[in-house]
Amino acid sequence: QVQLVESGGGTVQPGGSLRLSCAASGRNFSDANINWYRRAPGREREFVAVSGYLGTKLYHQSVKGRFSISRDTSKDTIYLQMNDLKREGTASYYCNELECWGQGTQVTDSS
Fold this sequence. Notes:
This protein is mainly β. It has no helices and eleven strands. The protein has strands spanning about 5, 10, 20-25, 35-40, 45-50, 55-60, 65-70, 75-80, 90-95, 100, 105-110. β7 (about 65-70) and β8 (about 75-80) form a beta hairpin. The protein starts with a strand and ends with a strand.
C-alpha cells in the first residue's frame, strides 16, 4: 500500500525556517513526481512545489527563492526547506503523488 507521511511542522516566527519531510513507502518512488500543497483554514488547497523524477523543480510564485524542494532517493523522502517564512499564516502542508495524500503536518504562524 502506497503511503506518504509528512513531518517537521511546528510553530515559526516571521523570518524563521522549517524543513518538512515526506516519507514515501509502498513502492519505488524514484520515478514519481511528488508535490507539496498547503491549506490554510477556510481557504482552498494551494500548490507549493513539485519535485519531478527527472529533476524538474517548480514552485508557486509566492515561495520562489525562499522554499526549496529536494529528495533523497535512498530514503524515499522528499523535503521542503522553507526559509524566510513571511506571513504564510498557519497552514497544513501535504505531500502528494497522483491520488495519494499524506495526513499533513501543520505549520503555525506565531505572530
